[in-house]
Amino acid sequence: MIQTITAPAPAPLYVELARSLEQLIEQGTLRPGHRLPSVRRMSLQRDVSISTVLQAYTLLENRGWIEARPQSGYYVRPRLPSNTPEPRMARPMAKPSYVGVKDLTAEVLSIAVDPSYVPFGAACPDHSLFPTKKLARILASVGRNDPALLGRYAMSLAFDPLAREVARRYLQAGCPLSHDELVITIGCTEAINLSLRAITKPGDTVAVETPTYFGFLETLQSLNLRVVEVPTDPRTGICLDATRDAFANNDAKALIVMPSFSNPLGSCMPDAKKEKLYQLLTEFDLPVIEDDVYGDLHFGERRPKPLKAWDTDGRVLLCSSFGKTLAPSLRVGWCAPGRYLERVRRLKFTNTLGTPVVLQKTVSDFLRNGGYDHHLRSIRRAYHHQLHLFAQAILRHFPEGTRLSRPDGGFVLWVEMPAKVDTLQLHREALKQHINTAPGALFSVKDRYRNCLRMNCGLPWTEATDAAVRTLGELAKKQL
Ligand SMILES: Cc1ncc(COP(=O)(O)O)c(C=O)c1O
After folding, report:
1. Which of 263, 330, 455 to mutate to test the pocket of ligand 1 (most atoms within 8 A of CB)?
2. What are the residues whose beta carbons fall under 8 Å from the beta carbon of 401, sequence distance 6 or more?
3. Is 1 exposed, middle or buried (0-12, 13-18, 19+ CB in 10 A)?
4. Ligand 1 geometric centre to CA of 412 (Å)
């Protein structure tokens, strides 16, 4: 048989131009802060049209290489040196453990909302990054146009137009979902809580990544569940061999995982790894709770596919919310519980009856008419930029030997300092300077991560922010 081999189509001109500029930035020919030639000059230099240059600059901007400054031009963004050491992976846990009560978690959370503290400890961007004014206008008009909404219970699983919007967005991300598979919840927190209650009973063991989001540990504690922590690679996510061991040797009954930009590591599992994880879950016939709250905050061009995209038999309970992208205080989240839909539906009913329709309608109106995609593009750029500024300041001010995660999405950094630094002590001392931090101890049930810290980089970069990072670094250096 004769096979015809067709050569791959050449990349469009603007992609070629963007690639060649990326190379110049990577090689250091164009350095951070450097201004790129104006669009007209570049078009003359490279003998391409103005629109090709504009498209190439927009592509580079979306990929986080350059930024446009109003009335000034395009500038190369700061980047982390590629040889910055990354945090080390933890060891597996010998046996499951119950979660102890941590007063520290409540303390960090209560101070997180106190505006007199620098909020390095919260995983919440500054309010200026959310479209609060537009949302406030929509909220007012929802109440004005249909006051009867306030006088009714929200008994259904979901406000239909919102569920359709959420499902449509997952379809775009390569994860077909039907709107009637969704339960709208009070934030992702309720979605996780209901999911755990649907698939476990007290005393069961649940596998989690380590380090993991302390909110999970609090929920597991409140449901009297045991935890087995699974080592997680700071880039590619949960270790599959260790997950297999947790299932085989520790009798884990479920897994909670953040495949796309985990908190606190920022790791993102490649598609092939997600597929293998799904196969492992099938082999052990176990359910998995997928937390996807950071999935929309990718810096690359493509939104990572949720694990749910591989779910052929309904074992993935996908949980998420608009808390990290649109407005944390509207508390609108969702759960796509697969084969556990009926159980989650009943638990939702006993938990909170329903999610306020006024809030669901506000979000769905914003999604339909408020420019959500435009907003997402602008916060992704902002988070990406701020992560780099924070990372550079940390490397400048923190003790020598500090290791840093390099997430491709989200807005938190995981910082590992030399072993002698005690971040609990650092936290106490930083509080005296009105700086709130999230010490590593919060992210594990074991005595781990004593020299680690999660940094919230969703804050505007100002001299005060830089000074607070410097203060933290100086306090840490004093301990050495
Ligand atoms: C991984 C993760 N899941 C869930 C939440 C809570 O989400 P929500 O505010 O929608 O309840 C957070 C908040 O920090 C988080 O980091």
Report:
1. 263
2. 85, 417, 418
3. exposed
4. 13
pLDDT value at residue 104: 81
Mean pLDDT of 1-15: 67
What's the pTM value of the predicted model, to 2 decimals?
0.89
pLDDT value at 347 more than 80: yes
Which residue ranges form the domains of the chain, and what is each CATH number? 13-76 (1.10.10.10), 132-369 (3.40.640.10)
Q: In what order do the strands lie in the sheet with 412-416?
A: 403-404, 412-416, 452-456, 438-439
293 CA distance to ligand 1 middle (Å): 7
- 186, 238, 267, 321: residue to mutate for ligand 1 pocket, most atoms within 8 A of CB: 321
Residue with tokens 């986080």: 64
Ligand 1 centroid to residue 191 C-alpha, Å: 10
Q: In terms of residues, how long is the chain?
A: 480
Pocket-forming residues, ligand 1, beta carbon under 6 Å: 123, 187-189, 213, 215, 258, 263, 291, 293, 321, 323, 328, 333
pLDDT at 1: 42
CA of 420 to the centre of ligand 1 (A): 31
Of 99-113, 313-327, 342-356, least confident by mean pLDDT is: 99-113
Q: Which residue type does 471 have?
A: T
